[in-house]
Amino acid sequence: MTDDGTNSGELLWDLDEGPARKARPTLTVDRIAKAATTIADADGLTAVSMQNVATKLDVTKMALYRHVASKAELVAVMTETAVGTPPNLKEIRGGWRPKLELWAQEMRRTWQRHPWIPAATAGSRVTGPREIGWTEVAVGALEGTGLDGAERMDAVFLLSGHIRNTQSPTTAGTQPWSLDRTLNPMISARPERFPSLVAAAASVGNAPKDNGWEFGLIRILDGIAKLIATRRRTKA
Amino acid sequence: MTDDGTNSGELLWDLDEGPARKARPTLTVDRIAKAATTIADADGLTAVSMQNVATKLDVTKMALYRHVASKAELVAVMTETAVGTPPNLKEIRGGWRPKLELWAQEMRRTWQRHPWIPAATAGSRVTGPREIGWTEVAVGALEGTGLDGAERMDAVFLLSGHIRNTQSPTTAGTQPWSLDRTLNPMISARPERFPSLVAAAASVGNAPKDNGWEFGLIRILDGIAKLIATRRRTKA
DNA sequence: GACACATCGTGTACGGTAGACACATGCCGG
DNA sequence: CCGGCATGTGTCTACCGTACACGATGTGTC
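Predict the joint structure of the above. Result:
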């Protein structure tokens, strides 16, 4: 960038380092997506602007449009890369429940590595095959449980929705308390108006500070288990 | 608005209708919020820009800043007004479950009237007292169930998260099928890659087309019921 | 009744966003 | 050698939220 005299000196010395060293490697979709992902991981999806990505790659923002059609497409590519490949659940023994537990944990871990994924995968949009692959294996884990197709789909949607809700501060609803279980001061200052919330905050046990992740996971799986038990009974 | 000759005629006639009829009613927070809500109800929260709201009220956008400090504050006012007052659950008989069922239904209905609420209530922000009131009554419905404070809060959060996930197309995760249960064509074209999804889509029963709302609600409540049953047993 | 002042709406400006489009440059095949 | 095509640049438009100076207007006080 800086075009001062020192640069020419560096250029001379760099001649020793080998031939054909490109000053600027050519732009590819991959490099663009990687740069955008770095930004998103660090500063969130809102920090991903064409300008920011372009600056990081030392090009103008319009250069990016030679490789991606729109920002939405860029985000789609980022997402499809970041979600990775779903876990292989076929080798997991013990039926549908351990499989879904592993699946949920893996998904949660992936989303923790890339906290912007929930925001990027909300709303209607084009979905990539790898992302769909996650749904595929989860629905597959529920085959043979007696649930019909719609139920298997709904169960997986319920589970992934829970991950979304507990994982991302940007897509989750606002909680009355903060992450460390400290009640909103506006509430604790008005115990007569919000008695149940104040009482609940006063009697918090040693629950894990995971934004309700573990709690919800067990409740959902228990609920699904109950339905499956009913189906097996009616079938027999 | 139009400043043509017909207007003066109307003005003359209007003299009969009473004194002090203001051509433009003065701007108030209420009128601004109402206009913004109308826009959001019709075209979504993204259509709510200061410019659009101002145009609707026939003022410049900067005039709005005399009454609201920022757009975030405007959205907060809109939300607090739109959520309304929570239902009175104390009169509902039959224990926690019918109470929470009614609560969830009422919340869902409110959110259906204003589909932008999920998007407006996501992320960290200032929460209004009426909105917190909804959480208050739901947590209150779980008192006396044996759940500790954190569990009562987590249960309500789980439930409202489910409403959010099934209610708003903008905050929900993308489903492999559309609202009418038609599988994404990208999936149905590749049955060898997504066998479980194709199989599930083929065996959909007469499940309600409610985006998994009813399914998830029952599963979650069943899961909570199981936990409550455990607590009662250990207590006794 | 005049005048100062507070309130409220206007107009202009700034930095940010996504993206359309014309132009330059450099590489590669004939 | 040379023409064409791919790729990156520069400029422009239409938005977004919001800071700030200005003018009009209505109101309370002397």
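Chain B touches chain A through 71 residues (CB under 8 Å).
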